[in-house]
Amino acid sequence: MYLGFIVTLFSFSDISAFYHDPGLYAPGWIDYLNLQENLTNDLFANYDPTISTVYADIADWEPLGDNPRTIDRWNYTILLYYLKLVEVQEPAEKVSVVLELVERWYDPRLSWNISLYSNVSTIFARQEKVWSPTLSPFGVNEIIDFRDQDFRLISIDFTGYLNDYLSVRVSANCPMDVSRFPFDSQTCQIRFCLPIFNIRQVKILNEIYEGILQEKIIKTMGNSEWKVVSLTNRVEQLKYDDDYGNMDLAVFEITIRRNPLYYIYMIVFPSFVINGISIVGIFLKSADKMSKLNVGLTNIMTMTFILGVMADKIPRTGSIPLLGIYIIINLLIMIIAITVVVLITELRQWAVPRLKLKKSYMSRKLETFLGSPIEYTCAILLEFLTTANFFVMIGFWFEDL
Ligand SMILES: *[C@@H]1O[C@H](CO)[C@@H](O)[C@H](O)[C@H]1NC(C)=O
Ligand SMILES: *[C@@H]1O[C@H](CO)[C@@H](O)[C@H](O)[C@H]1NC(C)=O
Ligand SMILES: *[C@@H]1O[C@H](CO)[C@@H](O)[C@H](O)[C@H]1NC(C)=O
Ligand SMILES: *[C@@H]1O[C@H](CO)[C@@H](O)[C@H](O)[C@H]1NC(C)=O
């Protein structure tokens, strides 16, 4: 029995010293593993991962990409596989996104003839076994690579193309235009470059995985406040006049639109209601002047407080956002209401005796008007202004939809 075991063990010894349960391992699989092992050994026999694969023997004066010694510049592709918006910090003008990226490059030392290896076309290896370029963000605030250094894998294609996968969180600086806040859209760029190599040596390409450009996938990229409306890619060339520091930049551009609902029900609607009621309060006939003033001043304080809430959400730029204009108009309406209430008694004291002297039809009419009708008219006019202000504001929302 022991002998049988040892015989079994040895008959598989070209694979490994362990017994393979035929119920678990198909023979084809074992062949494949063997083959892969042979292939890996052959591929890496003379491979030194510290030696770069980039063709760099190009002089500064040679024209770009037109080099008889190589086919083209060394290609380096960044493929965006998914994007998720994490956070938008308007005051700091920062946008954080999580990116799932695939890097692809070419290393001719790692190609093989598939007919010599029973058509095995791809193998997988640890990234530390091969030379890899270092993707770097350009002009980005912060980048965090979520992968553990020890668990990075790459796939190697028989043609010599290598792919690796990275999951990074990038916090990009992004100038914000809040003049239409809270109905604003922002456009942000996330830029990557390959440092150290110059533009004659490396050509950067970038792509977006087509599957994620579907409407239903793009919808999942935003967060509760921001919706991603578009996602594009391009390669930009960073140019300086001296032609020396030029650099290829892979740019991913996102356009995001704010969901204004929160600001509508937290700021726009309440301030409309508060203003509307305060105007009624100010022009209330039975109230004395002091309590009317109280209503007005409380309202002004509330509006100022609301402005303060808004100020926390926007960068300190020169332009006044729409929401700010809306609140300031509300504030002005309230100031007009207070002014009217304060001055109306003075006006009556000044005008009524003079009108009484004239005794014409017009002056009698004017005298009646200076009674309670003037207050009603002012109240209705100001209520109308408040409502108009509110609907113009809401109009901007529907314009965006
Ligand atoms: C792997 O290489 C060994 C030694 O060269 C050889 O004996 C074996 O047949 C090879 N295996 C396959 C599956 O090619
Ligand atoms: C690099 O990419 C370009 C454009 O896709 C392609 O035409 C060229 O053949 C590639 N060069 C190499 C060396 O792979
Ligand atoms: C690959 O190997 C086969 C078999 O040895 C040979 O006929 C073929 O020419 C090789 N192909 C290349 C591109 O070297
Ligand atoms: C490899 O692929 C070629 C073409 O598809 C086929 O003719 C050949 O039989 C395959 N060889 C093996 C070992 O599977």
UniProtKB/TrEMBL annotation:
Q: Which GO terms describe its biological process?
A: chemical synaptic transmission; monoatomic ion transmembrane transport; regulation of membrane potential
Q: Name one GO cellular component term.
A: synapse
**Where does the record place the Neurotransmitter-gated ion-channel ligand-binding domain?**
78-260
Gene3D superfamilies annotated for this entry? Neurotransmitter-gated ion-channel ligand-binding domain, Neurotransmitter-gated ion-channel transmembrane domain
Its topology with respect to the membrane? Multi-pass membrane protein
Per UniProt, what is one Pfam family of this protein? Neur_chan_LBD
Keyword Signal present in the record's keywords: the answer is yes
| Superkingdom of this protein's organism | Eukaryota
List the GO molecular function terms. Answer: excitatory extracellular ligand-gated monoatomic ion channel activity; transmembrane signaling receptor activity; transmitter-gated monoatomic ion channel activity involved in regulation of postsynaptic membrane potential
Membrane-crossing residues? 262-284, 293-311, 323-347, 368-398
Where it sits in the cell: the answer is: Membrane
> How far does the signal peptide extend, from start to end residue?
1-17
Keywords of this entry = Ion channel, Ion transport, Membrane, Signal, Transmembrane, Transmembrane helix, Transport
Under the heading PANTHER family, the entry gives: NEUROTRANSMITTER GATED ION CHANNEL (PTHR18945)
Family per record: Belongs to the ligand-gated ion channel (TC 1.A.9) family.
- The protein's name is Neurotransmitter-gated ion-channel ligand-binding domain-containing protein
What is the organism of origin for this protein? Caenorhabditis elegans
